[in-house]
Amino acid sequence: MIVSFKVNGRQVDLDIDPRKRLLDVLHDDLQLISVKEGCGEGECGACTVLFDGQNVNSCLVPAFQADGHEIVTLEGLKKWPGFSTIERAYLEHGAVQCAYCLSGFVVSTVAYLKNQTEQTVNEDQVKYALAGNLCRCTGYTKIVEAVKDLAEHEKLKELFAEDWPYER
Amino acid sequence: MKPNPKDFRVDALSKLRGEARYIRDERILGLWHGLTVRSPHPRARIISIDFDDAFKWQNVTVVTAQDVPNNYVAMIEKDMPVLAEKIVNYVGEPVALIAAPSPELAMEAREHLHVQYKPLPFIDDPLQAEQSDIKLYGSNNVFKEIRIERGDLDEAEKTADKVVELEVRTGFQEHVYLEPQGMIAIPENDRIVVKGSLQCPYYVKNALNEIFKGLRDITVVHATTGGAFGGKEDFPSLLAAHAALLAYKSGHPVAIFYDRREDIQFTTKRHPSVSKNKVYVDAEGKLVGLDIEFYLDSGAYVTLSPVVLARAALTISGCYYIPNVRIVAKAVATNTVPSGAFRGFGGPQAIFTMEMIMEELAQKLKMDAHRVREINLIDEGQTTATGQVLKYSVSNKQTFYDVLERSNYQQKLNKYRQWNEPILERLKQGRYPKRHPDDVLKGIGLSVFLHGAGFTGGGENRIKGKLRIEINDNGQPVIYSAQTEMGQGQQTAFRKILADALAVDIEQILLADVNTDLVPNSGPTVASRSTMVVGSLITDIGREMIKKFLEELKQEYGFPFEYRTGYFYGGDMVLPFRQVAQKHAGLIFEKEYRHPPFIKFDEQNWKGDAYPVYSWAAAVAETEVDPITFNIKVTRYYTTHEIGKAINYDQSIAQIQGGSLQGIGYAIYEKLERQNGHLNVHGFVDYIIPTTVDMPFMDIKILENPYPFGPFGAKGLGELPLVGAAPAVVSSLRMIFSLPINKIPVMPEDLFELAQILRKNGGQP
Minimal Cα distance from A33: which residue of B? Predict the structure, then answer.
């Protein structure tokens, strides 16, 4: 079946097997290798992508459901000027280890930062925002610290408002 | 060593940008997909393997035991077949392999392949294994027995004031690295190239060399590995053999990628343990004797169980001085997926056992849990159960006192006891336990632990790890080692060790790709050995390099040079390292590891220096238990680790954070049981690991007490954090209920049962 959607700002029209998951289409067909399969049942978050601006597990989304929608993966986030700030926070906080989970964490981080409206940063909120992403290496402390720092970053808020390259 | 705590990881940026290629990200033209046909029975005879005619078999490749040139996986023994031939010994044991141009076709073929079995009786209790009529291994199903004896237990019995007995149990634990196992095999003319997610390329190469002896050469290439924790130490030899056999027979490159369910059910686990313990103490609570019978449930095949058992037996007397000891440890066979390597490697089971002995003592002697530990702590100059004299880098008391002080242990202990009293009283009386929503039970507990760095006993002298460093055309030293990056930070540590040994920037040091055609066998990436053992070869070669260049410069210029902070000074010349090195492009330095000669171990009698040195740690855990749901939450976790020298301070902290949370998971979240020979988990849905919401506040401190033979004084770190986390958490739960809890994992339902005991007996067990 023919499915048309936007991936990282680019319109794609694909003839796909209707049984395929969005994860398979992104990773295998479009070679967006940041989208990882860790469990295939929506528990680990390694395959997290933005679906109309919300973080979802792409292993739980049948690919045809993306028809008419906008998908952003880590590859797409790299085109946004704010990405270097996020990258720098993860780097400086030493939040990277095996990193199989990492692109999922970064996508969930962006979803949280982009959608959060609170004035003050609450650690519990950060933790809940990332609770759908499992990591077995880091013990999460450094990741949560990195995201807390980012949540206080004034310039990022501007970049979301003014330089976000995607529709949602 | 440069004091720069923020040495960023050399692999961080490619990973943050999603550019690192893991094995599933490889693009290989004409790649076929392999799958495994597995036994549904814990033990059965294979009657037949039938291919039904409804399928076109010429489109796929099938491999059975008949196709395997030498049908065993060479590890410590050769008992485990690559594919079962006549008998299957665990649920999930591989019986046949199928490869096809697409995963769908392979799965379709699977439906048309019929294996007939005759189920046989099986062993599913490690304590029944020795007496069982079913023989899985030798005459009594014991893969390995170790006896460590010291002093005289009869003497201990005579002088003891009190004897305490208890049984301790630990459960399975699954690694759940986020990247499931995966391997690709590519057939070339007279060679098979295997690339995958793995820890020990030479283990895989050796195993495949035996299977394909005289038929094919083997090259093993390490792909970016998404976590391992020991799970990719032994198991990849089996998986690589499967992929290689399919590639060999089909002539196509073949990938086998496990999904989470297959990975969690059919790959190795941490050995469950059961122990019967008897401990003798004098009137003050000092240990005078310890008598332990310790069992590891090793599953159906030997794999690494003898060495896991050795580490457990050598660790079990823990951080305490005990004059009279008898440890009888056995690794026994059951019809279960083989247990294997897992971070800590027998240490977590052993330390949990010993720490629960101390907890039980405290309760029986009516002493505080920290006090009974304090008076028994081993110190420099004292001897361990094997008679090893602890001579250097001993920080047992330092870590203990540091963590108690930093956590404000004593004050909180008193405060929480008081706080809990009315809530416990209401539980005892069967009344509604909460007066206020904040009425949760508060626990505080501790543990003291250690980990021997490097291989057990004479292991390092047998392996003789070799390292090579070459100067490339740009004058940059390139490190050739078989050590693998799996997330722990090995690449950063190695480059930093050589950079600091040469006093140059880390960017000037390069690492060769890990490919067995290129790198020497520097030994496996296990046992917290990479930094200490292979790292010491790096500093040794660094010194040799400088010496060599100084000699060459003197010969060239006729006057002596001196090397300081990255420059060669001589006469009025100042030459940077790289400029000098460039003149020697192509120069090769090689070195083989040997323990310092005074380290001696007798493996027959289990006497002597079990490890060259130990890393030391202590932890304090604070927990909250809801008195209605009995939900357990670890709220704060303090730990002090003494690791000789932190090569990368920031990443050392990261290791401790991650390892500690894995240990907390081992204590209260991760439950995996065997039911009728089947493991009862399927994935993250029913095997629960901690999430961001479950993480405690962590307060970590690193102490440094240099080991004279490690690089810059470094000892091992990777495993230690996991080893002692579970007993600290359980200690805090015992503090709340003042009742025995001698098994992990501890679940809310277990605490509910304790509350029932409180209610029925007014607190008496």
Answer: B25
Q: pLDDT-derived band of residue B256, with 50, 70 and 90 as boundaries?
A: very high
Among partner residues A38, A91, A126, which is closest to B178 by beta-carbon distance? Answer: A38
Q: Which of A26, A98, A101, A102 to mutate to test the interface with B (most CBs of B within 10 A)?
A: A98
Closest by CA position to B424, among listed B444, B443, B446:
B443
* 8 Å CB contact of B178 and A96: no
Q: Verify whether the Cβ–Cβ distance A43 to B659 is below 8 Å.
A: no
pLDDT of residue B53: 96
Percent of chain B with pLDDT over 70: 99
The answer to whether the Cβ–Cβ distance between B18 and A103 falls below 8 Å is: yes
**Is B487 close to A91, i.e. CB distance below 8 A?**
no
Helix (H) or strand (E) holding B510: strand B510-511
Chain A segment 14-43 residues within 8 A of B by beta carbon are: 27, 31, 33-34, 36-41, 43
* A38 vs B contacts (CB less than 8 Å): 178-180, 260
Q: List A10's β-bridge partners, or say none.
A: A7
Q: Which residues contact B152 (CB under 8 A, 6 or more apart)?
A: B324
- Give the residues across from B471 on adjacent strands: B477
Residue/partner pairs of A145-148 with CB below 8 Å, 24 or more apart: A145/A93, A145/A95, A146/A89, A146/A90, A146/A92, A146/A93, A146/A95, A146/A109, A147/A89, A147/A109, A147/A112, A147/A113, A148/A121, A148/A123
Ordered domains of chain B (ranges, CATH): 22-122+176-266 (3.90.1170.50), 126-174+269-348 (3.30.365.10), 377-384+392-455+609-761 (3.30.365.10), 459-594 (3.30.365.10)
Using a CB-CB distance cutoff of 8 angstroms, which residues of chain A are in contact with residue B633?
none
- Comparing CB atoms, the residue among B8, B225, B653 nearest residue A91 is B8
- Binary contact (B684, A41; C-beta < 8 A): yes
Q: Do B177 and A75 touch (CB under 8 A)?
A: no
Identity at B690, one-letter amino acid code: P
Q: Verify whether the Cβ–Cβ distance B178 to A43 is below 8 Å.
A: no
Kindly state the tokens that stand for B576: 């940077």
Contact B226 A133 (CB under 8 A): no
Positive or negative torsion for Cα B196, B200, B205, B208: negative
Smallest Cβ distance to A127: which of B11, B259, B692? B692
Instruction: Read off the pLDDT of residues A46-73 as tens digits, 9 standing for 90 and up.
Output: 999 999 999 999 999 999 999 999 999 9
* Strand-by-strand arrangement of the B217-222 sheet: B61-64, B94-100, B32-38, B254-257, B182-188, B191-196, B217-222
Please write the tens of the pLDDT for every residue from B189-199: 999 999 999 99
Chain A residue at shortest CA distance from B21: A33
Q: What is the mean pLDDT of residues B120-132?
A: 97
Contact A39, A59 (CB under 8 A): yes
Q: Alpha carbon of A109 to those of A98, A126, A136, B131: distances in Å? A: 18, 9, 18, 56
- Strand, helix or coil for residue B202: helix
Give residue A119's pLDDT.
79
